[in-house]
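Below is how a single chain appears once it has passed through the pipeline. First comes the sequence as given, then the structure the pipeline wrote out for it. We keep one example in the README because the format questions we get most often are answered faster by looking than by reading.
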Amino acid sequence: MKKLTYLLLLAALCAQSPRVLAQEKSQDKSKNEEKAKPSVPIKVQIVFTEFDGDKKISSMPYSFMAIADEKVGGYYSTSLRTGVRVPIELDSKDQKITYLDIGSNIDFGIRSEEDGHFHLYMIFERSALYPNKSSEGERMIPNSNSQPLIRTFRTSENMILKDGQTLESLLSTDPLNGHTIRVSVTINVQK
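Resulting structure:
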């Protein structure tokens, strides 16, 4: 009886072996295909434009290279930080001044899709000082103390683009001065 049980068990294992080997080969093949996927360098341009009504006030372009399907610590493979540190006075006995980063921060990643499009992941943050002096046509924000007023703009975006396409991904209005802020993104595959 024991001999028959062992023979049946051995027969069952032998019957399953080709299926298990085929699954392992299929998994190895898909892993090799993922590794063999070529790196695709992509030039990315992000333009942050501010308008007062129809009048363009400023345009700040950011341009960098990203590699599609490259992951470094998650989805974001490219980071850009640019700006200035502004001193801020504190009402503290231990510390009189602290510094605040003012400028632009971009975290960006891109993944290629089967149909030739690209899936973009972007976190964009921009901060700026409100002016403390009036220039012609500029609306002033009242500030009773001497501390600077800082405006911020933050967005987290997911979008699908194809090579050479430009997309105006969002439009936002500054609640204090009514200026509109537009962000456009362009990608170009580098050959």
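Residues 1-36 form one domain.

See the next section for the split statistics.
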